[in-house]
Amino acid sequence: MFRDFYGSILNEIINSPDNLPYPVRKINFKKGECITKYGQIEDAVYFLNVGIVEMTIKSYVTEKVIDFFFENEMFTSLTSFLTQQSSDVQMKALTDCEAEVIFYQDLQIAYTSSLNANKFGRILIEQAYVKKAKREKDFLSKTAEERYAEMFRTHPQYISQIPVNKIAKYLGIHPESLSRIRKKLNS
Amino acid sequence: MFRDFYGSILNEIINSPDNLPYPVRKINFKKGECITKYGQIEDAVYFLNVGIVEMTIKSYVTEKVIDFFFENEMFTSLTSFLTQQSSDVQMKALTDCEAEVIFYQDLQIAYTSSLNANKFGRILIEQAYVKKAKREKDFLSKTAEERYAEMFRTHPQYISQIPVNKIAKYLGIHPESLSRIRKKLNS
Q1: Chain A: residue nearest B130 by CA?
Q2: CB atoms within 10 A of CB B47
Q3: B138 in A contact zone (CB under 8 Å)
Q4: pLDDT tens digit string along B110-143?
Q5: Interval A121-136: pLDDT, tens
Q6: Alpha carbons A17 and A12: distance in angstroms, whole number
Q7: pTM of structure
Q8: What whole-number distance in Å separates Cα of residue A177 and Cα of residue B10?
């Protein structure tokens, strides 16, 4: 639940939604449902309670999977959210999802006066920056096999729930190459 | 001066250094001096009053220029600063530089209780995230010529102060290709 996540980042116990600096609402997405579309201006950040979300980007004629989000993670089309310009990426529910949502306007209001809102926002964006920098480096320095092995290590419970062609698109390889990697790692 | 920059981000007028949430000290670097070395743990963020700083990364046998910083910009080896792990990048003064410095420990202390320190930090890292995402996209979607034209547009006064081979390394092209681009843009 978002409240626990928020408390863990701030090292505080948040007993009631009233102790949060902004309203947080429950929201459900059906499998295959679009959460944020290409070209839309992102107006919310989400906390995922149940399910898997994929993030894609259009690349010439094809579409690339650039990220997966899992339970207890926050997600949004971050550049669009921060700049309030149209989104280059699209987010879709890969399974039925239960999430919590915080809206842009509510967050901006909290940012004017809440120490905790700013602290939480700062720490989250610091983490997003480090994750982005790490991904960039991994793409330049690691093989698809190493990246698959890392995904398998960090999120083993999800691998079976994501279609093989999606994982291949994420790794930037052909599904056949992924089959070979899987066989090798399983043997 | 850092104090004015800090105030402009927060929309406040900061009359005295005492109104800053952390100590800020003057520091000078000679042309060619290393500010942060490869492998060092970054312990400071800088605000550049005078001069140009280059940021490089080792890439196999060669070295790539990944960024330049100019007057009135903040700079640090950000991933190293945030994670307190060793730096992949190196920063060097390209000209004699005058800067102001804030140390990691002082910043962490301010972050525990200062609304303004957290707000300023959050906004700065949001900007760094957007800049990083934009750069990534530009590298994928723009030609060296377009990127040079943009640099020329945003920082015309500096182009003449940066050696041609450094600009070529930044654009990821041969110095001869850059000469052709310059001739074309000047004609």
Answers
A1: A79
A2: 23
A3: no
A4: 999 999 999 999 999 999 999 988 887 777 778 8
A5: 999 999 999 998 888 7
A6: 13
A7: 0.88
A8: 51
Tokens found for residue A13 = 């116990």
| Chain-centroid distance, C-alpha A133 | 15
Closest Cα partner for A109 from A21, A20, A46, A5?
Answer: A21
Domain that holds residue A80: 2-114
A111 with B129: Cβ contact below 8 A: no
Pair of tokens at residue A122: 């700062």
In order of A80, A181, B1, B24, B28, the CA distances from B16 in angstroms are 36, 61, 12, 12, 22
ipTM of the complex model: 0.87
Would residue A135 count as lying in a domain?
no
Whether residue A154 is contained in a domain is answered as no
Structural domain count, chain B = 2
- Single-letter amino acid, residue B35: I
Q: How far apart are the CA of B71 and the nearest CA of chain A, in angstroms?
A: 24
Looking at residue B99, its amino acid is A
Return the CATH number at A86: 2.60.120.10
Identify which of B79, B122, B136 has the shortest CB distance to residue A130: B79
Q: Are residues B121 and B183 in the same domain?
A: no
3-state class (DSSP) for residue A73: coil
